[in-house]
């Protein structure tokens, strides 16, 4: 992972808006102050809703770790699930690889092929965005995305998986592309002692 890789402002904004809606604006100000990143929320102005560079990947990881320390797993789960879903909505409108999935050729593919293609293209966006390897594959149990050097849980320790942002991200990708809601869960997480972070998608819609 390249710590100095910058994420688009839109991604940081989605996290900010989700925190405000779930916990209030004062909680957002507290978080940025505690994380030493107040410059991204100076004067109460949210990061712009575009792809201009904002925080680095390392700063995003630090922000997430600080948020888990302050608000806990229960507070952060709905925030990061929503931010992940909304980030995917942004990329499906701006990324050519995802936009192509709305075409007629995609609609006639077998279901398994659709899921594989959606996951591989979504994972490629995340890999380019975060500069950390994302591997997709499938077996009899489901479809998987494996993330090494995971930035979502870096600096955190937990008793269970906590990478909620990618769960929301991939769940929304599948819902949009297939019209179905698939069960998405994290089966292994570095924060809870795993060697990597593994997201599993069930073979059948929920």
In short:
The protein is α+β, with helices and mostly antiparallel strands and 206 residues long. The chain has helices at 9-23, 25-35, 57-94, 96-99, 104-107, 111-130, 164-178, and strands at residues 6-8, 53-56, 134-139, 142-147, 184-188, 197-201.
What distance separates the N and C termini?
Answer: 33 Å
List the secondary-structure elements in sequence, H or E.
EHHEHHHHEEHEE
- Please list the strands of the largest sheet in the order they lie side by side: 3-4-6-5
Strand percentage, roughly?
Answer: 5-15%
Structural class: alpha+beta
Q: What's the helix count?
A: 7
Work out the helicity level: 40-55%
Q: For the CA atoms, what is the radius of gyration?
A: 17 Å
Q: Characterize the main sheet.
A: 4 strands, antiparallel
Low-confidence parts lasting 5 or more residues at pLDDT below 50? none
Number of strands: 6
Mean pLDDT: 92
Instruction: Indicate the overall shape.
Output: globular
């Amino acid at each position: 992972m390249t710590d100095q890789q910058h994420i688009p402002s839109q991604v940081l904004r989605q996290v900010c808006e989700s925190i405000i809606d779930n916990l209030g604006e004062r909680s957002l100000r507290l978080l940025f102050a505690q994380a030493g990143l107040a410059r991204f929320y100076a004067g109460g102005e949210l990061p712009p809703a575009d792809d201009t560079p904002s925080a680095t990947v390392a700063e995003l990881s630090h922000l997430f770790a600080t948020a888990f320390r302050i608000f806990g797993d229960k507070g952060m789960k709905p925030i990061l699930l929503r931010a992940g879903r909304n980030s995917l909505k942004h990329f499906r409108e701006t990324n050519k690889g995802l936009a192509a999935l709305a075409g007629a050729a995609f609609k006639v593919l077998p279901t398994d092929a659709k899921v594989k293609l959606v996951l591989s293209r979504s994972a490629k966006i995340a890999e380019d965005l975060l500069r950390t390897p994302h591997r997709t594959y499938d077996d009899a149990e489901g479809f998987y995305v494996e993330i090494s050097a995971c930035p979502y849980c870096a600096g955190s320790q937990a008793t269970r998986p906590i990478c909620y942002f990618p769960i929301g991200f991939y769940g929304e990708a599948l819902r949009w592309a297939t019209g179905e809601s698939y069960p998405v869960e994290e089966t292994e997480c570095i924060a809870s002692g795993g060697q990597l972070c593994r997201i599993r998608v069930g073979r059948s819609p929920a």
